Amino acid sequence: MFGALRGLLAVICCVSVAAWLRCSKLEIEPKLSFIAVGQGDSAVLQSGSHTVLIDVGPRTDTFDAGERIVVPELYRLGVDSIDVVLLSHPDSDHVGGLPAIAKRFRIGVVCIPEGFRHNADMLSWLSRARISPQNVFWLDGEADFTVFIGLLKRYLSPKPSKSNTRHVYPSFVGRLELLAYALMPNHIHLFVYQHDQYAIRDFMRALLTSYCMQYNKVHKRVGPLFQSRYRASLIGDDAYLQHISRYIHLNPHDWRESDKTSLDFYLGKRHADWISTKRIMEYFSSSENYLDFLEDYEDVKKMYDEIKWDLATIEDPDPESPYERHLRQGRTLTQ
User: Using alpha carbons only, how large is the chain's radius of gyration in Å?
Assistant: First the structure.
């Protein structure tokens, strides 16, 4: 089987989207302070008397970054109240400091992605911090997920896609196959097989540029949308190939019920011509066998954690591809 992997490049795209601050009708000036909290993240955005806190650091049985680090730093920055606390996801290294911060500062509203509305861990942290449900603003990104799925179909469906002005969008059929995906509230994961040297690069530029343009139009914003470039990793053996698909499908906390991954296509619940499951499913006797493989998570937890951090950035090659020339010639807006 290993010989069949020649030309296979799996790209796991962790694309952080700086797009959730829709609740900020504040006129925010670019004064951003990052707080070193160890594992996890925390940042403070200030504009005059207004303050937005983005994630709140970790909390363990022996250490509370909220109490020991974030609170003192907020005092040092002259903060006396927090207009908005933005929590990206419910992992304790990002939300654990909330109770200590809520005890010390008045918090106007807590903004959380809609996808975590029923997450037990998130609700537990809100309860421990005594945050009233009336002060929680759930950021509904459902429409944004739909747009992103639509763009995957646009570029990967066998039938050419056209705009309202009859412009034919570029097709990546024959150049690239989408094996698996997971759309998370603050990042995405794509697993692809490319058939030519420039396929991933061209596909990602078309996909992300189109999404950014549509997002900016809908949400009446301008400028870059993504926090950083995508990161990618080359897959070199069959075992890793299987585990990558599992890593992607297990990303959502409610992975069995989530409709934001390609898992339903693997389990036969949905079918589409723009996603290819064959390269993974040929290792399994049935959909039930693949589901058992996912549920057997604890036995490979170490590999799961290593995959999460073992990503290497793939730089754009210098030579210009035909699609790169298409972009350079000013046709980006037609994507």
Answer: 21
Cα 132 to Cα 20, 114, 126, 136, 137: the distances in Å are 21, 17, 8, 7, 11
Q: How far is CA 268 from CA 26, 145, 153, 178, in A?
A: 46, 21, 18, 17
Inter-residue long-range contacts of 146-153, CB under 8 Å, 24+ positions, other chains counted: 147/211, 147/214, 147/215, 147/218, 148/183, 148/188, 148/211, 149/183, 151/207, 151/210, 151/211, 151/214, 152/178, 152/181, 152/207, 152/274, 152/275, 153/272, 153/274
CA dihedral (131, 132, 134, 138) positive or negative: positive
What sign has the CA pseudo-torsion 304, 307, 176, 151? positive
Share of the chain above pLDDT 90, in %: 39
Tracing tokens 């942290």 back to the chain, one arrives at: 125
E strand spans, the chain: 31-34, 42-47, 50-56, 81-86, 106-113, 136-139, 176-183, 188-194
Neighbours of 277 (CB within 10 A): 23
Residue 84 and residue 53 in contact, taking contact as beta carbons nearer than 8 Å? yes
Contact 53, 26 (CB under 8 A): no
User: What are 43-93's pLDDT values in tens digits?
Assistant: 898 887 889 999 998 888 888 999 999 999 999 999 999 999 999 888 888
Which residue matches tokens 């009446």? 220
Q: Judge whether 157 and 274 are in contact, CB under 8 Å.
A: yes
Residue 28 structure tokens: 């925010």
pLDDT, tens only, 147-165: 899 999 999 999 888 887 8
pLDDT at 225: 73
Helices (H), 129-249: 142-156, 199-219, 238-249
Judged against a pLDDT cut of 60, whether residue 28 lies above it is answered with: no
Helices (H) and strands (E) in the chain, counts: 13, 8
